Amino acid sequence: MNRLLIKNLAEIATPLGKTALRGKAMNDIKIYKNGAIYCEDGIIKLAGTAEEVLPQLSSGTAVKEIDAHGKCAVPGFVDPHTHFLFGGTRADEFIARLEGVPYMDLLKRGGGIVSTMRQTRVMSEENMYSAGKKILENMLKQGFTTIEGKSGYGLDKNTELKMLRTMKRLQKDLPITLKTTFLGAHAVPPEFAGRSNEFIDFTIEQVFPEIQKEKLAEFCDVFCEKGVFSIAESQKLLLAAKETGMKAKIHADEIVSTGGGGLAADIGAVSADHLLAVTDEDIKKLAGSNTAAVLLPMTAFCMRKQFAPARQMIDTGCIVALASDFNPGSCYSYAAPLILALAVINMHLTINEALTAITLNAAAAVDEADTSGSIEPGKKADILLLSKSDYRFLVYLTGINIVEHVIKNGEIIF
Ligand code: NIG
Ligand code: FE
Known about the structure:
Urease, subunit C, domain 1, binds N-(iminomethyl)-L-glutamic acid, alpha/beta, 8-stranded mixed beta sheet, 2 domains, TIM Barrel
């Protein structure tokens, strides 16, 4: 048996529970001073103060020990929204956007997602694997122990399947919980220009069966946006996806409000993501549902947009989670310290709410709240040891990565 004891922790800071926290409860972070955590075979068995934990350990058993004097432990971060697999980069578009060209204009001109599509279609599976591996390893250094990845840069059957199969390989090979999402409806490919409806039918009829056969994706996502896929098209796609066993996610109300947030709540989606332009009515719908509102502050920041109304969402009772949205277009970053800083400084979350949003609630947004996102018995031993003794330094030491050690499934990765 693999036993690990982390002792002498200045503090443990964690949300608690096996389901997402909403509203005021997001602020309820449990703090254990002089903490200790004991794990067996990758699972947390005991967590609390040294006085609570240490007497329960039987002496004489071989235990690997970490003396975490002066350090603080928080749960491994969860990133529930990334597009980490892609060919090429788009620095020119980044500069053009800074000079005032709107994101949707670039897409309409055959740039944006379609430009990455062209570069991803010609990428070999080996190159895709090694590029993805490097990115995931770097994300692990930021503290992300669970990561969601989307397809969506193939927009044809072969490349979409290639992306999902590559993720399956990465899932096996890396010490990361990788959750796969099929985002075949990320944009209308040139082959279907002006025929988005037919592209949705093609996706349901031709691609879904392959995904189902090989169990390639747990979730299905869609870019529900004016000029991309309508509410009706998104609903048709996601209801069909649910029939094949995939859970729904939606890129909703990112640029203009089309009712994507409300649709997510109506169809019982696991998450509605972006929500910069969500209406008050749809915030209420989300608050009355179990759909997580996944907010992507770095995307709003990079696109110079108003942040999603996070305060209003939490105060209304929504399940709010945070994610990077890492992709080569709207947000070429997976910097966890920046996500946390923007959430607290610009979106007015408390530090406790932000910690819940990037751990337990982010886990709920990928249907992993029962296994990850908190430090408590029964959860995976996914633990970050911070170089500071106070978890508030995650934001106070602004933009700096203070993750010193990452423990994944009870193994010290670095
Ligand atoms: O979540 N908005 C749609 N999809 C991504 C951007 C993808 C890209 O520009 O390559 C997003 O922001
Ligand atoms: Fe996205």
